[in-house]
Amino acid sequence: MARRTPPDRRDSILSAAREIFAANGFAGARMEDVAKRVGISKATLYLQFADKQALFRELIDWLIETSLPDAFPLTLADASASERLAIFAQEAAGKLADDDVAFLPRLVIGESGNFPELAKAWHDVAVSRVLTLIEGLVQQGIDRGEFRAVDPYLAARSVAGPLVLGVLWNTIFAPVGAEPMSLAALARSHVDILLHGLLQGETA
């Protein structure tokens, strides 16, 4: 059973793991390289994290905690649901374009065929959490009478889908000559289009 890691040590280990995974991918990353980067023994690292998969999953959780937008749009009492949804999409796009975070979906896309547990970890820790937050934003808009009574589950995936496409585009097509896609511009455009389908009084 892994021991609880002191917060400062945990941050140091996960920061080092981010650098190692980003540089070498999952298959090429080694626990001993992470330990060396932190200045601890490999045995000490294994006391904290049972294996590389456990370290990767903890890294995703850490990046969600420190980087991706959390529940802040839900607490903006003076903002409309439309404004909160737009803020959320812009923050998410900004973080997905940040190299400190962007390497994760790139890594999962590139290596999940050989390591399906990476896709599961990314979905369970990151994707499902973000979708739940978007569903909450949509439901609040419905409850306040600002949005039509759409299905929040489907609406959340409509919000997130283009950002996933943007990540895929920049990961797969941009390296072979396609024009890179601005996730921030994509988020702004898509939210504007989407809101015209959500707002009360808009005609189809």
TrEMBL record:
UniProt entry keywords in alphabetical sequence: DNA-binding, Transcription, Transcription regulation
Highest taxon of the lineage: Bacteria
InterPro entries: Homeodomain-like_sf, HTH-type_TetR-like_transc_reg, HTH_TetR, Tet_transcr_reg_TetR-rel_C_sf, TetR_C_Proteobacteria
DNA-binding region: 30-49
GO molecular function: DNA-binding transcription factor activity; transcription cis-regulatory region binding
Cited Gene3D superfamilies: Tetracycline Repressor, domain 2
Residue ranges occupied by any HTH tetR-type domain in the UniProt entry: 7-67
Protein's name according to its UniProt entry: TetR/AcrR family transcriptional regulator
Organism: Stakelama tenebrarum
